[in-house]
Amino acid sequence: MGGIDIIFKVAGIGIISIVISLIFEQVGRKDFAWAATVIGAVLVFGVALLRFKELLDEILTVFRLW
Amino acid sequence: MEMGSLLAIAIIATVLTVLVRSHRPEIAIWLSVVTGLIIVGRILPLINFIVRTLADITSGTRAESVYFTTVLKVIGIAYLAGFGAEVCRDAGERATAGKLELAGKVIILMTALPVLIAVLETVARFAK
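Above: the input entities. Below: the structure tokens describing the complete assembly.
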């Protein structure tokens, strides 16, 4: 089922948010840089949490832990 | 049989995690959690097959199947507790990892209690 796409998605969001926040820091807008960081973290949180729940459900089902 | 792809996933994810960790530790944690779950997710069908064959073998009396499911539950709880503890330790939160492991042990004890009581009862019956 592949699964590596989620890794690239999370890493991509992370890298983009780092780059954006660095750019904003260079320009001198500290608040925008912080906003980019927080938005990146929230996005990663959501994406990873969804896949985390799916995989956790599978594990719980296999081990009859329901 | 799919060791190659698992190795590839692990290496790629580790490199990306290290890349992101220096700037964004929180995203690196999520990356390592997701990688771990994906690797386990890939081998879940195999575990499922092993579990089903073992269940068929021990499908004798009802008692045996109960013991087998308890053993399976204990293995599952131990694995999950270990997984969570390792992730917490990676992130530097050794205290949380210890608490999680303690919780895992208590839950395992709770699950295994009925089996223990059943065994003691049979032993007591023989002793009489």
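Note for the figure: Helices of chain B lie at 3-21, 25-57, 62-90, 94-127.
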